[in-house]
């Protein structure tokens, strides 16, 4: 019987315990397979074989319903107020629309941190409302692609620089210290609320904007940031044309978030090399739309409408982004790099309700949340589901759509896959390439969100009555077996999830919790799962932080020892072995423990150990690890020790985790590049015993009969 046949039973099976439990059936016994990882992702053909350029466009507070093809176009037939996004609609027609794509968190900083570092909020070090907190010095989109030979640029809003310091030299996590070769834009989160950096606008003073390490706001008279960032992006893209290297551009606009400031003049005709916004580089006229007056232009499609002024402003801001996207797409065509450039367009969270001095504003006029409930800071669909479009001519089927759940943390392994590199072992995501290309079998994404905020869901009449004005508090979302579990104002790990089928019920109107034995079982599995996939963070305390991680039901046919797989491959970091090619696997078997003698050579070697750890007593356990290369330790899907990027060989690192008595999936990945003395020592201490090596009697694996 082959592996697939062995697993084709009514069981709950973990294909990669670091990622997520895949449910084959609700009616099987709960036991584990520890022999298999996910199959390698099948990558779409790339013609010449060269990795594509990548442009990731992120908008600020653009709602799921704010794109024509997602929702606004439906309002035309309904006779409701609507605004247009013709260029984004064309992008949808030429690429794929991701209908259930989720942010890391429903507010700016943690959402962007999860995006950049490829981890969900259960592992991110920026959570809740931690604006301007320093992005940790770990793998991120820029460092990974830079390793693959990409030129890396960031144009737009950052906000993850660190709260200490006041300059590029003193900010701990300035973009050029986090893998970006080039930076142009806003550093501080708050500065992004003014879209005219050289001017005082309503409720906002002039602000700082940096080009590289130079503060240049005094050169930006009349410059509107949507145009400014588009022109700067076009300039940088053009400069990459003949370098011989692919490029990655992260383009996070600071609009349409408030203030509701509008452009100074109509968008210039055309686009690309000769039209649209153009970089002039002259002080006081840095771009061709910089004008002596500001905030003059309501788009002509909306100027004559009998709409409130704030709504005209908002619609004009969205249209300006649409103009910029069309301008950039034209540039790719002009430079003859369109077919080898993947472009992603999305938003950092749901729609806002701020105005900052421009009159009362709510996202109800255009129903920016679409058919969903919730806005920014909510974990209802409207706060976390964002409009996402991916375009890559010739590689992504035009006009395609997917409603498979996925999230921001999936982009790091996706881009690593594009670049021909394995994903780092710490990532919580999966490559989306099979989904985007329609080739191969996509792996299921782990969608997990936690967030805390003291406000309440707005009492909009469009929202389901029971959640109007509902206190938010501690919130949590988990997708499991295709269903969404959501908790508001969480007080303990025992609080029930509401459960929704958001594919059939995007408005979350029918709570399935308790409606059948199936959903009673799913309720328990969700409660266990959210404890097994995250790590507490003392700066963002949760009511379930001290709850022991539940053990799994002991499977039958256990034997002592860990399963191991050996891969002979160079890797720039400790990899997620499910993203290594099968042709690199050189050996597998069972070892008594974390035994490096199973290696098949001394350099460019990766060893993945997996099994079940027998925990003798409920309590807090401290794991410590010392190695010569790099290693990452997981229990269930939680990263307990990350001794990878920045790790100094020979030093000891440790991590604490609360565990329930019983069996816990354990996985350790070890990697070494150069020849040398191999060393790996894993110890633990817990209730009733001091630090010691994990004994072979504590390590088990599941045996399958032939």
From TrEMBL:
CDD domains documented for this protein: ARS_like
InterPro entries cross-referenced by the UniProt entry: Alkaline_phosphatase_core_sf, GAG_Ulvan_Degrading_Sulfatases, PA14/GLEYA, PA14_dom, Sulfatase_N
Pfam families hit by this protein: PA14 (PF07691), Sulfatase (PF00884)
Domain PA14: 557-698
Domain of life where this protein originates: Bacteria
SMART domains in alphabetical order: PA14 (SM00758)
Database matches in PROSITE patterns: PA14 (PS51820)
SUPFAM superfamilies per record: Alkaline phosphatase-like, Anthrax protective antigen
UniProt-listed PANTHER family: SULFATASE, SULFATASE N-TERMINAL DOMAIN-CONTAINING PROTEIN
Protein name stated in the entry: Uncharacterized sulfatase
